[in-house]
């Protein structure tokens, strides 16, 4: 089905409309506009291209080709008047505002706010959601009953220690766990919480970032990931961090200690100046924000089950390194298990059931009282450390199917965005809803976007 | 471009794949080498630190005489690390006390480049010396392993000889 290239052209058409003299202004937060002076290269094809082009150019052409997935076509490639659009933008959504989130707005689609320190832009997004937001004209989501439940939990957690609010979203694949986590993240950000979001926890354990053994902590540090996390945490939470100071002295390797009363922003900048200090500084920063009671803290992790799986890292003797022997997963596991906590706040995680490289392990399954997918008798080994790290996690089950009104809102969003290739009527809606049996991902991707009917 | 022991490793390649450019190193050995040098799977050659490149060159120049790496102690779930101001010498001492002796390391027995080629040459020369069928076939420049010679056998006719290049 060739809906996606059409989609890319459609989006570019809107860009063209915005650049033309028509009164329409279509802003897409996630669309890439060609930068000034940037030329889009086509990858060379065939042996001729490989022989004549130098390796550097081939590499950049390949990279452009990879990055062009679901990116709009450049405006210069769409001169035909067919791509001009003079219809007004019909997708008008209310903004996602924390005060609005009550049972009254259930089943309504709300657009996420767009600002400079948007946590989505800075922390990143899970891959599926990133692709979806690139296709939509504006990032939005539908408020479900489970959203209001999660928000009520957050309101309760804002006054309690995070040890008492360690929640994991569970449900079958494609039911909306990652979206729910995003809604919780946006809610907390709007409510002036300190937020730390790890969109793809698989990147911590799949051997894609540097690791090095540290004698002091007896774990494998991941300095680059810690550095990037610090950078993003600072960028999103700068106004709040500027009001906070360290309460105790902090020791850092190969450096004089940081005295108490130092602004947290200054402490973070120490970690940003030298990547080697980043893991220690990140530990210290999280401890400091755990002690303060001015702002509640949300630690949100997607692909949560990856923290409990075997990592792809190998030690110097080629034995697999356990996830709790890597600095970043260990840090997240300590907060998830309650060994470390924030004075006010919560730890939220979302499982990813469609990742076959990091499937849900038995220790986490038992901690969350989920039903087994295969027989696990008493002779199946459970790692005691992981059982301890999973102890006390609370489960919030996301309903496996959207209700009819929620599905109708989703349908309306895609319909008004002019993304549905078939004729958008009740028959299509009910057919696709029944075929997907209410599953959100199947409804949108396999139902609406992938099928064409006259 | 990084040059290690006469072999060029392109910058844009993953280090784990680039190491297979050495004669005698395949994918499994390359994976073990990367693990020994603490190079993660998706590390590109341009991201290797000078220290890692030096270690790699030092190891590959003489794998059998490399220092064995002990098994470092790993933190238990209740381990509380000492403060960051602890002197390095104290940490080294403690780590050394708790480190376990390493088991047999398969990487110490690898042979690369000229050594590996010499092994192949020596094997063929030995076959010739003892007058075996395999040796005779190498000397005649014909297939050794029972392939058909009525047709094909082009590779053997081109490459097989007593001093066959590895």
UniProtKB/TrEMBL annotation, chain A:
Subcellular localization is given as: Mitochondrion
Q: Which organism is it from?
A: Suillus subaureus
Which Gene3D superfamilies does the record match to this protein? P-loop containing nucleotide triphosphate hydrolases
What is the protein's name according to its record?
Small ribosomal subunit protein mS29
Which molecular function terms from Gene Ontology are attached?
Answer: structural constituent of ribosome
Of the GO CC terms on this record, one is: mitochondrial small ribosomal subunit
Whether ATP-binding counts among this entry's keywords is no
Print the keywords alphabetically: Mitochondrion, Ribonucleoprotein, Ribosomal protein, Transit peptide
Grouped into one coarse class, the protein's main location is mitochondrion
- Indicate the family of this protein: Belongs to the mitochondrion-specific ribosomal protein mS29 family.
TrEMBL record, chain B:
Pfam name, any one: Ribosomal_S13
Any one annotated GO CC term: mitochondrion
Is Ribonucleoprotein given among the entry's keywords?
Answer: yes
Compartments in which it is found: Mitochondrion
Record key words, sorted: Mitochondrion, Ribonucleoprotein, Ribosomal protein
Specify the signal sequence span.
Answer: none
- Report the InterPro entries cross-referenced here: Rbsml_uS13_C (IPR027437), Ribosomal_uS13 (IPR001892), Ribosomal_uS13-like_H2TH (IPR010979)
| Main location as per UniProt | mitochondrion
| TM annotation in the entry | none
Tell me one GO molecular function of this protein: RNA binding
A GO BP entry is: translation
Q: Where is this region: Disordered?
A: 144-166
**Which family is this sequence assigned to?**
Belongs to the universal ribosomal protein uS13 family.
Q: Which PANTHER family does the record cross-reference, listed alphabetically?
A: 30S RIBOSOMAL PROTEIN S13/40S RIBOSOMAL PROTEIN S18 (PTHR10871), SMALL RIBOSOMAL SUBUNIT PROTEIN US13M (PTHR10871:SF1)
What the protein does comes down to: Component of the mitochondrial ribosome (mitoribosome), a dedicated translation machinery responsible for the synthesis of mitochondrial genome-encoded proteins, including at least some of the essential transmembrane subunits of the mitochondrial respiratory chain. The mitoribosomes are attached to the mitochondrial inner membrane and translation products are cotranslationally integrated into the membrane.
Q: What protein name applies here? A: Small ribosomal subunit protein uS13m
């Amino acid at each position: 089905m060739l809906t996606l290239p059409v989609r890319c052209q459609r989006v570019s058409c809107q860009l063209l409309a915005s650049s033309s003299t028509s009164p329409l202004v279509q802003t897409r937060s996630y669309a890439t506009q060609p930068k000034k002076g940037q030329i889009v290269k086509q990858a060379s094809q065939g042996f001729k291209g490989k022989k004549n082009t130098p390796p550097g150019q081939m590499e950049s052409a390949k990279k452009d080709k990879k990055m062009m997935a679901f990116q709009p076509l450049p405006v210069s490639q769409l001169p035909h008047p067919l791509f001009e659009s003079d219809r007004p933008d019909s997708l008008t959504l209310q903004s996602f505002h924390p005060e609005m989130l009550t049972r009254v707005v259930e089943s309504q689609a709300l657009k996420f706010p767009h600002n400079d320190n948007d946590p989505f832009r800075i922390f990143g997004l899970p891959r599926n959601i990133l692709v979806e937001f690139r296709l939509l004209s504006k990032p939005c989501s539908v408020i479900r009953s489970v959203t209001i439940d999660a928000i009520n939990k957050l309101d309760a957690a804002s006054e309690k220690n995070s040890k008492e609010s360690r929640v994991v979203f569970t449900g079958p694949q494609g039911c909306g766990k990652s979206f729910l986590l995003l809604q919780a993240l946006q809610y907390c950000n709007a409510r002036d919480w300190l937020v730390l979001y790890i969109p793809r926890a698989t990147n911590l354990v799949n051997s894609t970032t540097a690791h090095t053994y540290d004698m002091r902590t007896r774990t494998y540090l991941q300095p680059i990931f810690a550095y990037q996390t610090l950078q993003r945490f600072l960028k999103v939470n700068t106004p709040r961090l500027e009001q906070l100071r360290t309460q105790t002295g902090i020791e850092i390797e190969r450096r004089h200690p940081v005295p108490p009363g130092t602004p947290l922003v200054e402490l973070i900048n120490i970690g940003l100046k030298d990547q080697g200090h980043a893991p220690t500084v990140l530990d210290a920063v999280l401890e400091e924000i755990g002690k303060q009671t001015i702002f509640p803290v949300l630690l949100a992790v997607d692909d949560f089950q990856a923290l409990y799986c075997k990592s792809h890292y190998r030690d110097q003797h080629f034995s697999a390194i356990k996830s709790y022997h890597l600095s970043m997963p260990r840090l997240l596991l300590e907060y998830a298990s309650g060994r470390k906590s924030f004075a006010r706040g919560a730890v939220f995680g979302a499982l990813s059931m469609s990742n076959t490289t990091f499937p849900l392990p038995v220790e986490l399954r038992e901690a969350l009282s989920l039903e087994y997918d295969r027989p696990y008798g008493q002779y199946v080994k459970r790692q005691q450390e992981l059982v301890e790290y999973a102890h006390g996690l609370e489960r919030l089950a996301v309903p496996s199917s959207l209700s009819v009104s929620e599905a109708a809102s989703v349908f309306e969003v895609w319909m008004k965005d002019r993304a549905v290739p078939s004729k958008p009527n009740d028959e299509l809606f009910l057919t696709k809803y029944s075929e997907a049996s209410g599953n959100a991902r199947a409804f949108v991707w396999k139902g609406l976007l992938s099928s064409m009917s006259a | 471009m990084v040059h290690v022991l006469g072999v060029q490793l392109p910058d844009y390649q993953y280090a784990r794949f680039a190491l297979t450019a050495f004669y005698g190193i395949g994918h499994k050995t390359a994976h073990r080498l990367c693990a020994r040098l603490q190079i993660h799977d998706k590390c590109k050659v341009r991201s290797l630190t000078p220290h890692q490149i030096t270690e790699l060159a030092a190891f590959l120049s003489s794998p059998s005489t490399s220092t064995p790496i002990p098994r470092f102690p790993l933190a238990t779930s209740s381990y509380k690390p000492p403060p960051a101001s602890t002197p390095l010498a104290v940490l080294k001492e403690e780590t050394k006390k708790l480190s376990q002796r390493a088991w047999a390391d398969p990487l110490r027995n690898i042979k690369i480049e000229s050594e590996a080629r010499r092994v192949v040459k020596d094997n063929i020369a030995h076959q010739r010396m003892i007058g075996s069928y395999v040796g005779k076939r190498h000397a005649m420049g014909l297939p050794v392993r029972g392939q058909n010679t009525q047709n094909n056998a082009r590779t053997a006719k081109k490459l097989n000889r007593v001093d066959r290049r590895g």
